[in-house]
Amino acid sequence: MEPNTNFEHKILEKDIERLSKEVHEYKKEHDVEKIDESILRSVIGSRISQSGKNVNYQGNAKPQQPQEDKSKDVLPDYMDNEAPEIKLKVEQLIETTFQHGIDHGIGEAKKMIPFILDSYHDALTAKMFEELKNRGLIK
Q1: 53 within a domain of the structure (yes/no)
Q2: Disulfide check for 116: which of 16, 18, 47, 112 has CB 3.0–4.6 Å away?
Q3: How far apart are CA 32 and CA 99, in angstroms?
């Protein structure tokens, strides 16, 4: 199966393979019949927990506005009414993850306020679950 162009970076490709393995290991360890998004959420959540404690939020001095409203494709529905700068931060974290890998994205997200970290976790879980399904790595 040919990779989606949004996920063509080598680091992220390795992360996708690793996530697939971790999800299947989780399935075996917890005797789960079907892999759903909640399992991937747990796997990514454990990575977030293992990467250290949250540090203080270090936002930009001036908020930036999204160039286009692509947030519907990336962000969870509960963020629809959030401030544009909050949405942008989560979108930037997802883009950072696509470019530099999951562990780097998590490291950056851990510097943010808990709401941004949680929103990033939800958005990343949804995107990765969709990609793992599209590639046939989970059923």
Answers
A1: yes
A2: 112
A3: 32
Domain that holds residue 22: 5-134
> Is residue 63 included in any domain, yes or no?
yes
132: its two tokens: 């793992």
State both tokens at 88. Answer: 């942008």
HEC readout, 6-33? HHCCHHHHHHHHHHHHHHHHHHHHCCCC
What is residue 5's three-state secondary structure?
A: helix
Long-range CB contact pairs, 29-36, < 8 A, 24+? 34/139, 35/138, 35/139
Question: In which residue are the tokens 């949405």 written?
Answer: 87
Distances (CA, A) of 76 to 3, 14, 52: 24, 25, 24
> Taking the model in full, what pTM does it have?
0.77
